[in-house]
Write a structure and sequence with these properties.
Elements lengths: L18 H4 L16 H8 L10 E2 L8 E3 L4 H14 L6 E2 L4 E3 L4 E13 L21 E12 L10 E3 L10 H75 L6 H14 L2 H10 L15
Parallel strand pairs: 2-5
Antiparallel strand pairs: 1-2, 3-4, 4-5, 5-6, 6-7
C-alpha cells in the first residue's frame, strides 16, 4: 500500500442553461417542401396539436403517421416520411393503418420523433425545498434537441436494429435507405420469431398430448387389474356357494328345492369363467374395465 494517496477530482461537464444550448444540430439550409402529399401525410400535417411541456407536438389525426416533433421540425419530419413511403414498395413492403408497415405477412409499427434533453435555467427561481442531496438549483426543463429519429417496435428482443437517428455527420435524409432495409429486417425477424413461437407451442401441445395418452394408458391398465381382481373375488364367492347347494341336494328334501335353484342361479351369475371364455373366443378383452374400475360410482 502506498504511503501517500493522490486524489484526482474530475471536472464535471457543464450542464446546459437554456433551450438553445440543448439543441445539438442546426437545421440544414435546404428546402424540405413536399409538393404532392399522400393522404396519410396530409392527415399527419393537419393533425398536430398543442405542444407539451418539452415543446413537442404530436400528430393525433386518425389515419395519420405517428409523429412527435417541435414546430420548427415539422417540415423536416414530413419530408423523410414522404421519401420513406416512396422507397417501401421497391422492397415489397407498404403502409398498413396508422403508422404500421407490413410485408403482407407481419406488421410492425413505426414512428418519427424528435429527441429531447434537459437543462437548468439559472435565471429561474431556485427551489424552496432542498432535495436530499442538498440541491436547491432550479428545476430541470426539457427542450427539443433537433435530433430526429425513426423508431420501430422491438420485435421479441430479436436484436435487430429498431431505431435510426441523426448524428452530426449523418442527417436523416442520408439514412432513409438504412431505415427501409432495417424495417424489412424487422419484419423478417418478427416472422421468424412467430414461426419459432408456433413451433414451440406445437411441441408443447404434442408433449401434453403424449403425457395425457401415457396417463390414460396407465389408468386404463390399473382399471383392468381392478376388474381382474373383482372377477377373481366373484369366482371365490361362486365356488363358496356351490358346496352348500350340493349339501342341500344330497338330503333330497322337497322344501329345499326352490332355495337350491336360487342359490345355484346366484353361483352361476357370480362365476365369471363362462363370460371370460366367450370374450376370448370373440376376440374381445375379458377384463375390459367398467366405470367402477376407474373409481367412478
Amino acid at each position: 500500500m502506498p504511503d501517500t494517496w493522490v486524489y484526482e477530482k474530475r471536472k464535471r461537464k457543464r450542464e446546459p442553461h437554456s433551450a438553445d444550448e440543448v439543441r445539438r444540430l442546426e437545421v440544414p439550409n435546404r428546402d424540405y417542401t413536399v409538393v404532392n402529399l399522400s393522404p396519410a401525410l396530409r392527415r399527419t400535417t393537419s393533425g398536430f396539436g398543442q405542444a407539451d411541456s418539452s415543446g413537442l407536438m404530436r400528430s393525433q389525426s386518425e389515419g395519420g403517421l405517428a409523429t412527435k416533433v417541435s414546430q420548427s421540425s415539422i417540415p423536416r419530419a414530413i419530408w423523410p416520411w414522404d421519401q420513406l413511403i416512396g422507397r417501401l414498395p421497391g422492397i415489397g413492403i407498404s403502409l398498413s393503418g396508422n403508422s404500421s408497415i407490413t410485408d403482407g405477412v407481419e406488421t410492425v409499427s413505426i414512428e418519427f420523433r424528435e429527441l429531447c434533453s434537459s437543462y437548468r435555467d439559472p435565471s429561474k427561481p431556485r427551489r424552496r425545498l432542498i432535495s436530499i442531496h442538498g440541491d436547491d438549483s432550479p428545476p430541470r426543463e426539457s427542450a427539443p434537441t433537433g435530433v430526429l429519429q425513426f423508431r420501430c417496435e422491438e420485435v421479441y428482443g430479436g436484436g435487430a436494429t429498431h431505431q435510426w437517428q441523426e448524428t452530426k455527420g449523418t442527417r436523416m435524409e442520408d439514412r432513409l435507405d438504412d431505415v427501409a432495409t432495417g424495417v424489412l429486417v424487422l419484419l423478417q425477424t418478427k416472422h421468424e420469431r412467430e414461426l419459432e413461437r408456433i413451433r414451440i407451442e406445437h411441441e408443447r401441445a404434442e408433449q401434453a398430448r403424449s403425457c395425457e395418452a401415457r396417463r390414460r394408458a396407465v389408468e386404463y391398465e390399473r382399471a383392468r387389474v381392478r376388474k381382474l381382481i373383482r372377477l377373481s373375488k366373484a369366482l371365490e364367492r361362486s365356488v363358496a356357494i356351490r358346496p352348500l347347494v350340493s349339501a342341500l341336494k344330497s338330503r333330497e328334501r322337497s322344501e329345499t328345492d326352490d332355495f337350491s335353484k336360487w342359490a345355484t342361479m346366484v353361483a352361476d351369475r357370480l362365476d365369471p369363467v363362462d363370460n371370460i371364455r366367450q370374450s376370448l373366443s370373440e376376440g374381445t378383452d375379458p377384463v375390459k374395465p367398467d366405470a367402477e374400475d376407474f373409481g367412478y360410482r
